[in-house]
């Protein structure tokens, strides 16, 4: 079974990409209030996506 054929890995990868996109505007100067509020969901999606990918296989999580 390939890595990308696992559903948990695909969902985790999508969450990590969306979370990273939500975090990117925070590095720009003079960001708006909306992007400040987008930091929390972005961090949560990035964390949950990483957890999904890390625990997708049997055995100890890496």
UniProtKB/TrEMBL annotation:
Keyword Transmembrane helix: yes
Transmembrane feature ranges: 9-28, 34-54
InterPro entries from the UniProt entry: DUF8178
Keyword line: Membrane, Transmembrane, Transmembrane helix
A UniProt-annotated Pfam family: DUF8178
Protein name per UniProt: Uncharacterized protein
